[in-house]
Specification:
single chain; 227 residues; mainly alpha; 14 helices; 67% helix; elongated
Length: 227
């Protein structure tokens, strides 16, 4: 085993020691959905989740949550077909709607990401099917897809959107990134292919070793370095 990959059991025990034992640590870990459950989520909910994360970027999260019912109403519950039928003029009007958050650039991501999901549905039956069947051993490939085909889904926005919906993914949070850098698993910018590949290889290794989901491994690493 490469020396740069610390034994996952050692990481786990350090995290447990910092969080009042194994039982408490386990209570903090998320359980991702299985492929069947993921595939049954409506594409409108995927669009809503990604839109919420996009609007939360750089804004107090609670402000976005408080206004979210207004978003659902303004954008017809994020129905994909309806999003694609909205005229340019109506989009401009919606971007001025004081009941939501007036940000033209972010509002327009809704149309672009609806189009991304529509195109994915043509090939895969639904965007949800594509996500569900995407192998977690190449989760960075899904990150790259969202970044390239979607709008404002780069950085951690795409990965956080996936996790909140139940797709198994690790997150390059500040704590996780710091740990990986300390072990020299990643040595380049966080959003480079080299960093993503190094992180994916490490998480694949720990997944095989621990038989845990990537999301739990990611959380355990974060808890192991931060109180």
């Amino acid at each position: 085993m490469s020396q740069k990959y610390e034994a996952f059991e050692d990481i786990y025990q350090r995290a447990a020691a910092r969080h009042q034992g194994e039982a408490m640590l386990e209570s903090l870990l998320a359980q991702p959905l299985d492929n069947k459950a993921l595939s049954q989520i409506g594409d409108d909910r995927w669009l809503a989740a990604m839109t919420q994360k996009i609007f939360q970027s750089g804004i107090n999260w609670q402000v976005v949550r408080n206004k979210w019912p207004n978003f659902e109403k303004a954008f017809f519950a994020f129905d994909i077909e309806k999003m694609l039928l909205i005229s340019d003029e109506m989009w401009e009007e919606k971007a001025k709607d004081a009941s939501i958050i007036r940000n033209y650039g972010k509002v327009m991501t809704i149309r672009e990401n609806a189009l991304m999901m529509h195109e994915a549905s043509i090939e895969h039956g639904s965007f949800a099917n594509m996500v569900a069947n995407w192998p977690t051993t190449d989760i960075i490939g899904l990150w790259a897809y969202l970044k390239k085909q979607g709008k404002r889904l780069g950085g951690n926005t795409g990965p956080y959107s996936l996790r909140i919906m139940g797709k198994d993914t690790f997150i390059l949070s500040r704590d996780v990134e710091g740990y990986l850098r300390n072990r020299e698993i990643i040595t380049t910018g966080r959003d480079t292919q080299s960093a993503w590949r190094g992180a994916q290889d490490a998480f694949n290794h720990w997944q095989q070793e621990s038989q845990r989901p990537l999301s739990q491994i990611s959380q355990v690493i974060a808890y192991s370095v931060n109180h």
